[in-house]
Amino acid sequence: MAQLVFYRKYRPQTFKEILEQQIIVQTLSNAILENKIAHAYLFCGPRGTGKTSMARVFAKAINCFNRKDNEYEPCNKCESCNDINNGSSFDVIELDAASNRGIDEIRNLKDNIKIKPLKSKYKIFIIDEAHQLTEAACNALLKVLEEPPEYAIFIFATTNPEKMIPTILSRVQRFDFKRISLNGIINQLEKICKQENIKYEKEALKMIALSARGGVRDSESILGQVATFDKEVTVQEVVDLIGNVDFYTIKNFIDLIIQNDKEQCIQFIHKLDEEGFNLLEVNKGIIEYLRNLVLLNISKDLETIVAQTVTKEELEILKEQAELLDNNKIYKLILAFLQAQNQFYNSPIDSLPLELVILEQLV
Predict the structure, then answer these.
(1) What is the predicted pLDDT for the residue at 1?
(2) What is the pTM of this model?
């Protein structure tokens, strides 16, 4: 049997295991305890933040055979919970709207709704990537959403709620999922490493967490790839896999910019290219680094935002550099590197977009 990838193996099975979505967990658990279940929900937010996991846990909880009236967590032992965990439940239907987005699929779904649950109290339809449903498909759903059978519950999950038609949005309870914090992702990766007996460098996990941009699933996928190569997660292995560059490398590059050393900046970029770094990812790292400098220059109160993504030592370095660059200069650099981001895809030379920024911005 193929080994389960980490993001599937460590998918949350209870509300307690879902990371950093406390308000949503509290609202849904109260609805379960008070028996105030709505007929349609919208879970929206960045990818990898727990939308589908929350939908499955909610589905298990309201259909759990062993759950008592004063409880809201699913037991994960009864037939209903096991069927949902195994993806074999006839009463919880998952539909990927990215590949099932048309009117015919929705008509089939409407026919399915007419059939009462076989074993459970509710028949639950989880529609992932819901923003990809066609307008005709959405319109076909409206009648069902207006007058659903008492046993039917819809859960729409999407990363782009603004692309959904207003008539759908007006008929659902909306929950906005937030990105998972850097520390939250690092703690999850540490937990997996300990469970799997994987040795790791804390800085390597931080690099993985930063590259995931608030999405747990992406971070777990990267960890799995690195761990497959070697049962030890090091900074060098993460760099080799995802092409990210560490804090101190970007710090040294910014020092050269502060010194206005055009020649050394070009040499620095050439060295990164020769060492096999993904220069597109390097460019992203530079933009994030410069953003931190801007925030530190704007107000001391914004220091807490920067401190969420760096260590105390790194924060002190950033503060020192911020004093040496005025915000107007940093602003121009950020705009230049943002423009370079789009040029990577068409450039005949990988290093050229970064080199052009240096040639244009340094006197």
Answers:
(1) 38
(2) 0.77
